[in-house]
Amino acid sequence: MTEAVRAAETNNAEQVAKAAELVVRTLRADGLVFTAGAGHSLAAVAETFYRAGGLACVYPLYHPQLLPLHGAQSSTTAERRSGLAAEVLEQRAPGPDDVLVVFSTSGVNPYPVELAQAARAAGAPVIAVSSRQSVAAAPRRAGRTLIEEADVVLDTGVRPGDASFPVDAPRTAALSTILNAHLWNSVLAKVVTLAEDAPLWRSSNVEGGDEANAALFARYQPRVPALA
């Protein structure tokens, strides 16, 4: 795991910088950072949203059918269903002042691909957090792949199947959740170096946290219903 994190950090330095620039562009335009994923990639979406030290201007895209806790087999079916992305975007979709970040290790199912296509059609840039190796090995279910639809690709380097142990015949210790979180937080670190005034949440369990967050709720809750 340690080696995988180091490799992801080294191999994505340039792309992390480009992703951070897109996020800062969104901040300067008072836009929103839309984040999305399906299945276990929703763990990465949770990492982006209402997180101590995280951006307050995050709009998480979500549908209950995509979460394995609401039905394991049905969550796989949902991300393979063409049209679900359009349903999710009915409430709010990214526009030219926004940016979309999609987490998908395989990046071949209709849901993540159609999200990216819709965002780009609306003028919003797309950041993909995916694995080129996994994409190459997966069956194309959407005609194109998330990587092909993205403006910036953060490559986790995860092997097809996600498992990492034992090394010679991996069958456990999936790495995508760890690497997704690491790359996202690498982007945040770069964002803060470029924009010291980035709107960041404080922990509600530290002195003054609730007070500091109150202004962020007032600013973003009208545009991000999940902050209610």
Automatic annotation (TrEMBL):
- This one is known as Uncharacterized protein, contains SIS (Sugar ISomerase) phosphosugar binding domain
Which InterPro entries does the UniProt entry name for this protein?
SIS_dom (IPR001347), SIS_dom_sf (IPR046348), SIS_GmhA/DiaA_subfam (IPR050099)
| Gene Ontology MF, one | carbohydrate derivative binding
Question: Record keywords: Transit peptide included?
Answer: no
**Transmembrane annotation, as ranges:** none
Q: Which residues form the SIS domain?
A: 23-197
Listed under GO biological process in this entry are: carbohydrate derivative metabolic process
> What keywords were assigned to this record?
Isomerase
Originating organism? Amycolatopsis sacchari
Q: Which Pfam families match?
A: SIS_2
Q: Which domain of life is it from?
A: Bacteria
Q: Which PANTHER family match?
A: PHOSPHOHEPTOSE ISOMERASE, SEDOHEPTULOSE 7-PHOSPHATE ISOMERASE / DNAA INITIATOR-ASSOCIATING FACTOR FOR REPLICATION INITIATION
